[in-house]
UniProtKB/TrEMBL annotation:
PANTHER family recorded: 4-HYDROXY-2-OXOGLUTARATE ALDOLASE, MITOCHONDRIAL, DIHYDRODIPICOLINATE SYNTHASE
Domain of life of the native organism: Bacteria
Family stated for the protein in its record: Belongs to the DapA family.
Site for Part of a proton relay during catalysis, residues: T47, Y111
Protein's UniProt name: 4-hydroxy-tetrahydrodipicolinate synthase
GO cellular component: cytosol
Recorded name of the encoding gene: dapA
Organism: Priestia aryabhattai (Bacillus aryabhattai)
Keyword annotations: Amino-acid biosynthesis, Cytoplasm, Diaminopimelate biosynthesis, Lyase, Lysine biosynthesis, Schiff base
Pfam families: DHDPS
Length: 303
């Protein structure tokens, strides 16, 4: 059941107003900006979208507003993953039944550290409960659990799991997985600074956060790679890496810096919900200095 979700998937931020309620008015300009710079699919209510602190009724409001303003070709993936298999299945069924949703994303269960068998059974349980396409999300840095090669191959063989978002970065392992699962699923980089390296081993594209700010550059890199202009692609990768160091700095978690930059681009407010907090004045200055030096705002036609 391979469905086309494109090469650039953006894990979208959730705009909030000054009262920390959903800022529905900011959805339309944000979605149009993302589409105009190469995004083909939007992931809603993931980590970047502050999913853990967005309530269920708000997720429906968010989905409805995005659906209303998106291009008819743009797909929507709803994050449904938790570390409770029963709850994840319940979420998966609920959102899969919604006609506005094209696919769902399921992260490896975090915190409770299941075995490889448990990891597989978690995805199997969701797979057997729905008919919509599933993106499996592998991010050991946040979940503290790692799928081995054998488990990845088994998950790829589940009928509805048609995508893998990988943020582990073990490219040798992933290349082996891609060879063993050819035609079973599309593999996406979950790490903006490593996109070129993921393309080299056969990845389809990227689930990006940096695409909020430099989507056109990411799009250019993929085009350069496909045209075998590898030197150009590597140059673009160096630029993406430098910008990513400001969007994902050690001193603040995603999506705090990205929302701040989007606020400077005039697209939305920078507000985040606790336990996330906004950047300090000095942190903002550091980020802005680099982005101005790299002429990021000039490229995005915002100031």
């Amino acid at each position: 059941m391979m469905k086309e979700f494109g090469k650039i998937i953006t894990a979208m931020v959730t705009p909030l107003n000054e009262n920390l309620n959903l800022d529905l008015k900011a959805i339309e300009p944000l979605v149009k900006h993302l589409e105009d710079t190469g995004t083909e699919t939007l992931v809603l209510a993931g980590t970047t979208g502050e999913g853990p602190t967005i309530e269920e009724r708000e997720k429906l409001d968010l989905l409805s507003e995005v659906y209303k303003h998106k291009n008819k070709l743009t797909k929507i993936i709803m994050n449904v993953g938790t570390n409770n298999t029963k709850e994840t299945v319940r979420n998966a069924i609920k959102w899969s039944e919604n006609e506005m949703v094209d696919g769902i994303m399921v992260v490896c269960p975090y915190y409770n550290k299941p075995s490889q068998t448990g990891l597989y059974k978690h995805f199997e349980s969701v797979n057997d409960a729905v008919s919509k396409p599933i993106m499996a999300y592998h991010i050991p840095g946040r979940t503290n659990v790692t799928m081995n090669t054998e488990t990845m191959v088994k998950v790829a063989n589940l009928s509805n799991v048609v995508m893998l978002k990988d943020a582990e970065g073990d490219l040798e392992k992933l290349q082996d997985v891609i060879k063993q699962t050819e035609g079973k699923w599309d593999v996406y980089s979950g790490d903006d600074p490593a996109l070129f390296n993921y393309l080299e081993i056969g990845s389809k594209g990227i689930v990006s956060v940096a695409s909020h700010v430099i989507g056109d550059v990411i799009n250019s890199l993929i085009e350069a790679y496909e045209n075998k202009s590898y030197d150009s692609a590597k140059d673009l990768q160096s630029f993406i890496k430098e910008i990513s160091e400001q969007l994902f700095p050690s001193f603040s978690p995603n999506p705090v810096p990205v929302k701040y930059v989007l606020s400077k681009m005039g697209l939305m407010n920078e507000q985040v919900r606790l336990p996330l907090t906004e950047l300090s004045a000095s942190e903002k200055e550091q980020i802005l200095n680099v982005l101005h030096q790299q002429q990021v705002f000039k490229q995005t036609n915002h100031s």
